[in-house]
Design goal:
The chain is an alpha/beta fold. 43% of the residues lie in helices and 16% in strands.
């Protein structure tokens, strides 16, 4: 590990209070796909908003002005963070709730008995069930893109076959698997789907924390992500193409706004969490002496290779252990998220997680909401996988301690 990488990690760790709290107790967090610990800048921004006076939208008071300013700044900087010129930023309770809201709105516009939706076996089901449920109730059919369980890669030929008939309304695809780290060829999928007249919805939850995005170049119609995957608050975000946003009619209250991002943000939003998002971007930017969304983007671009290197080391080390089976694409497959799924012979995933917890090593287990993938890989009926997630504050030495502990199980 280079000196620059080590310094950047140390800098990040020094600004994540929960990591310091855990370090003093011998804890190491390897559960970043479930959620990272918060930056102090996020905590401070939320606290400042709460302690100086909160308000609903457009209240004729200084607190109302503050709320409007926070919303405007958070949208602007987050758009810069994701290179999302031409998209509207929509805030919500979480990605799953936003997915259902947009699925209802898009099915209202495009769902008919002579249409279909395409989903993949690689997905977290937040990018499956909303589309299946909302379109199926309008008579649309469902088509699946399969996964090769040997390579953990999508069978892109399935997508090509599904799009030949030109009756596909929506293609839903992940940018990085939350379970096994596979990064599909999303740019290719977007091109194919658009050529067939389909909209493309991308789950970017596991991609955004690990590599810089350029949505304007990628061109999805809707893109979802979660702030608590990159050291921020529990807050979901959807980015939607401006022209599509204007054409959709979401389910909403009659007196609420019918234009702009407001029409998708039903009810009062968590303004303190939105303040925390702006604080998170500031904190990431501070790591690289930058500012706002662009600085945060640079921080992610520098942290990403560090995370990838540690994850690849863990992957290779686990493959050397005779009792361990790794579920992750080979390195020849190209870019992978810093996520490693595995099983230990003779132990259920729950037992493995519990044993590692005794050593202060915290990983997750289960089907990880990747239900179809768990079925495809044969782990659905006996506990799913164990999963290791590498974040920007994970040290190589911690990863070595984790592998040693797994070897001793």
């Amino acid at each position: 590990m280079s000196g620059e990488s080590s310094n950047l990690q140390q800098h990040l760790r020094s600004h994540v209070p929960a990591v310091g709290f855990g370090e003093r107790r011998g804890w190491s967090f390897f559960d970043s796909p479930s959620g990272t610990q918060m930056l102090d800048s996020c905590i401070t921004a939320m606290q400042e908003y709460i302690t100086t006076g909160m308000s609903n939208r457009r209240e004729p008071a200084p607190t109302g002005d503050q709320t409007e300013g926070i919303l405007e700044r958070a949208r602007t900087e987050f758009s810069l963070f994701l290179g999302a010129d031409g998209y509207r930023v929509v805030f919500g309770q979480n990605t799953t709730s936003l997915s259902f809201a947009f699925a209802h709105a898009i099915a209202r516009q495009r769902g008919r008995a002579d249409t279909s939706v395409v989903v993949t076996e690689l997905e977290h089901f937040a990018n499956v069930d909303p589309w299946i449920q909302c379109f199926s109730e309008r008579g649309a059919s469902v088509r699946w893109v399969g996964v090769d369980p040997g390579t953990m890669q999508l069978r892109h030929v399935d997508l090509e076959k599904h799009l030949v008939s030109n009756d596909v309304a929506v293609v839903a695809i992940t940018m990085a698997s939350n379970a096994v780290g596979t990064s599909p060829r999303v740019a290719e999928a977007v091109t194919l789907a658009h050529a067939a007249g389909a909209l493309v919805v991308v789950d970017g939850v596991q991609a955004v924390p690990h590599r810089p995005m350029d949505l304007a170049q990628l061109g999805p119609d809707v893109f979802f992500c979660s702030a608590y995957k990159f050291y921020g608050p529990h807050l979901g975000m959807a980015l939607i193409r401006e022209d599509l946003a204007e054409s959709l009619q979401p389910y909403k209250l009659q007196p609420s706004s019918g234009s702009g991002p407001d029409k998708f943000e039903t009810g009062t939003q968590s303004h303190e969490a939105i303040a925390g998002l702006a604080g998170t971007l500031d904190g990431l930017a501070h790591l690289v002496d930058g500012t706002g969304g662009l600085g945060a983007r640079e921080a992610i671009s520098r942290l990403g290779p560090i995370q990838a290197g540690i994850a690849d080391w863990v992957d290779a080390a686990l493959r050397e252990l005779p009792k361990v089976r790794v579920f992750r694409p080979d390195k020849e497959a190209g870019e992978r998220a810093p996520v490693v799924a595995f099983r230990v012979a003779g132990l259920s995933p729950g037992e493995c997680s519990a044993r590692l917890r005794e050593f202060g090593l915290f990983i997750t287990h289960g089907d990880l909401y990747a239900v179809a993938l768990a079925e495809r890989t044969g782990v659905a009926r006996d506990g799913g996988w164990n999963r290791i997630g590498i974040s920007g504050y994970t040290y190589q030495s911690e990863a070595e301690r984790l592998v040693d502990a797994i070897a001793a199980l």
